[in-house]
Automatic annotation (TrEMBL):
CC terms in the record's Gene Ontology section: plasma membrane
Superkingdom, natural source: Bacteria
Species whose genome carries this gene: Anaerobutyricum hallii
Keywords: Cell membrane, Membrane, Teichoic acid biosynthesis, Transferase
Listed name of the protein: Teichoic acid poly(glycerol phosphate) polymerase
Biological process, per Gene Ontology: teichoic acid biosynthetic process
Bilayer disposition of the protein: Peripheral membrane protein
Location in the cell: Cell membrane
Length: 550
């Protein structure tokens, strides 16, 4: 693809930059997902900032229009010491488009961030408490009559004025940060110690436990410590917060596989490195700081994720996405693989797991198996649901071959149950919450899903996939994707139930086109090119070589 010229507009007022990007849309990019990033660079440090993209139709052709309003003091995790330049990257699907680079400088002084020193004042807190009803009413209307948002905004106001607040979460986070500062002042880092940190119960074959197991079995001189507590920060006792803060302050490496909120309230010591294994494979739905300013997204002032030192990912294709989502330099995101995918290359494990599942569910052995595994709708655990009326189990089974068994595998957040008529009870298994989805893929002939990240594991196993996207527009509006959905999916996409029934029956008869097979191969090469069964060892050796002093 030829090099693209572009023009920019820049307006800086009181450390806020309004940035515009304009370029003519090449014919070969028509109908594809376009992403634009403003890349702030200073020597070895960079920050990829997502811009809002709109495609404008014009008489002389379509135009790419991207805009962003950027708070400069929060672009970098630490204020820059060297000159800052801004360039742009343009992505068409998974392909980076070559731009006629026109870097422009920005004064480093504009990125200076005033240190906030909160001095607690009980008198001011008392006055704020008296005025709290007024604050709640004011913010109730400012937040479009959303009481939860209004309460949070009022609490933030009280916190800013008095140094006190009503949030147990914030109080415990502040306590954790204060203890951490005290511990780093009085204690040295143990150069051989690795802390495995999580606020949810890790899966036995998940990223965190596999890395922990490797170090235990292969590096006996490494000291392993853990803080795995399923309580959220507002539920932790002071003793637990002190224990966590001490382990964070004295460990050479902290390893995570998910967001750990209080870890981002600290200015970590330079001797400690944070490795984020993340729980997902590849990249599909937008996450992290990509969602700044959107529903459920963090504000630009957020420090979430931004102190990671190493993030292993499944391929070079998704490195820029993780760098953007975590607000870190691309050099910290490395295509080293995903530990939990190693089992998908372990033939002995797969054979044993198949035999185990066949013993537990004998009907699976002599029949063709469809695994229906949709993702949830809603904002999260508390309001997650799946519209059961969109998938009529009984009608679906009527349309499938007689030797078909259907496994229902709802997302763990979804508590609803599908209605199954008596005539299908022996051919429909609801295994939601009972078996790991990766294990169920081993005995399946077809995966039906929608927007679930399970597509990456299915692609490794070369399992045929069918995508049921009856609400694509609504889901896109609430969540958004990094890639065009229809071009991303390694299998047919259907949008109505009758088409789903027909296509699944055909795919069970092994009617998979050459194009679909080619799409699956291309998908693996694009998103999974470092996933080879050796991810755990490769990541662990990287950590040992670079961060552990034995």
């Amino acid at each position: 693809m030829r090099k693209i010229n572009y023009r920019i507009t820049v307006n800086i007022t009181q450390k806020t930059m309004k940035l515009g990007f304009r370029a003519k849309m090449p014919d070969e990019m028509q109908g594809k997902r376009i992403r634009v990033q403003a890349v702030f660079t200073q020597r070895q440090v960079e920050r990829r900032f997502p811009m809002e993209v709109v495609i404008e139709e014009g008489e002389v052709g379509d135009q790419i229009r991207a805009d962003a309003e950027i708070l400069l003091p929060y672009v970098f995790y630490s204020p820059p010491r060297h000159k800052v330049n801004v360039i742009f990257t343009l992505w068409c699907g998974a392909e980076e488009i070559c731009l006629d680079d026109q870097p422009f400088p920005v004064q480093k002084e504009l990125f200076a961030r005033a240190e906030i020193v909160r001095k607690r004042n009980l008198f001011k807190f008392g006055l704020c408490s008296l005025g709290l009803p007024f604050l709640l009413v004011r913010d109730y209307f400012k937040e479009d009559k959303n009481f939860i948002k209004a309460a949070k905004r009022a609490n933030d106001t009280v916190y800013r004025i008095s140094g006190y607040n009503y949030s147990a979460r914030q109080q415990n986070t502040d306590y954790f940060a204060a203890r951490y500062r005290k511990y780093i002042a009085k204690n040295k880092v143990n150069p051989n110690q690795i802390l495995f940190l999580s606020e949810r119960e890790p899966e036995k074959n998940g990223n965190l436990m596999l890395v922990k197991k490797w170090f235990e079995e292969n590096e006996p001189e490494v000291e392993i410590t853990t803080f795995i507590n399923t309580k959220t920060v507002d539920q932790l006792r002071k003793k637990e917060l002190r224990d966590c803060a001490f382990k964070c302050a004295t460990s050479a490496v902290i390893i995570l596989e998910d967001f750990y909120p209080q870890l981002h309230s600290i200015q970590k010591r330079s001797e400690t490195k944070i490795v984020q294994l993340w729980h997902a494979c590849g990249a599909f739905k937008t996450f992290g700081l990509t969602r700044m300013g959107k529903q459920g997204g963090a504000p630009q002032t957020s420090m979430n994720h931004r102190n990671y030192d190493l993030v292993p990912v499944s391929s070079d294709t998704v490195r820029d996405i993780y760098a953007e989502a975590f607000g870190i330099s691309g050099s910290k995101v490395q295509a080293l693989g995903v530990p939990r995918t190693d089992l998908l290359f372990d033939w002995d494990y797969e054979e044993k797991k198949r035999e185990e599942l066949y013993r537990k569910y004998p009907i699976l052995k002599e029949n063709r198996v469809i695994l229906f595994a949709p993702t949830f709708r809603g904002d999260g655990n508390k309001d997650a649901y799946y519209p059961l009326e969109a998938f009529d189990v009984n009608h679906f089974m009527e349309r499938q071959p007689e030797d078909t068994v259907l496994i229902l595998k709802n997302h763990p957040f979804v508590k609803q149950k599908f209605t199954v008529d008596a005539q299908w009870q022996d051919r429909v298994l609801d295994l939601s919450g009972e078996e790991h989805i990766n294990d169920l893929m081993l005995i399946s002939n077809l995966l039906i899903t929608d927007y679930s990240s399970s597509v990456f594991e299915a692609a490794i196993l070369e399992l045929p996939m069918l995508f049921y996207a009856f609400d694509e527009k609504e889901y896109m509006d609430s969540r958004d994707f990094y890639f065009d959905y229809s071009q991303f999916t390694p299998g047919p996409v259907v949008t109505d139930f009758e088409a789903l029934c027909e296509e699944s029956a055909a795919m069970l008869q092994n009617i998979v086109s050459a194009n679909e097979q080619a799409d699956l191969k291309k998908f693996r090469e694009t998103f999974l090119n470092t996933v080879d069964g050796c991810s755990t060892e490769r990541i662990c050796r990287k950590i040992k070589t670079n961060y552990i002093n034995i």
